[in-house]
Amino acid sequence: SVQALAPPHVALTMQDAPTLYWYVESLPPENVEIEFTLLDEDGIDPVASFAIPRPGKAGIQALPLADHGVVLHPGVEYEWSIALVVDPSKRSHDVVSTAWLRRVEAAEGAGSQTAGELAEHSLWYDALDAISDQIAAEPGNADLQAMRSALLRQGELTVSVR
Cα(161)–Cα(62) distance, rounded to whole angstroms? Predict the structure, then answer.
């Protein structure tokens, strides 16, 4: 299974190219392709669509949009998805998870906010990125892991984070 890590409503970011997070409980078989797709509110042609390299381990995965030249416009609602392409000739068999986001204008002094403060201002993607960056810097810090788990629960996500 695959899960886009975002609440079940449109979540916000101040970043023009945020890092999106997704979760895979176990590594898919080697023959399964992983695909990212981003649609704007018109939803006709993808804003971006590309293959994602197979992760090295199960758990939470980061997808920095800046690495793929994707820029979000303020005020536009986007739908993004992660798909496990089991059979490229039968795309109806894909295992897909979707989420929604909207970029908002940065508030004065917003760059210095903690993950908790970002979450209080409904900046879900920025809060998850901030706490995930802290975990990357201190992978053994149980308090940071607990903070991320709490944020995911707050976003109505039930994943076993690793």
Answer: 13
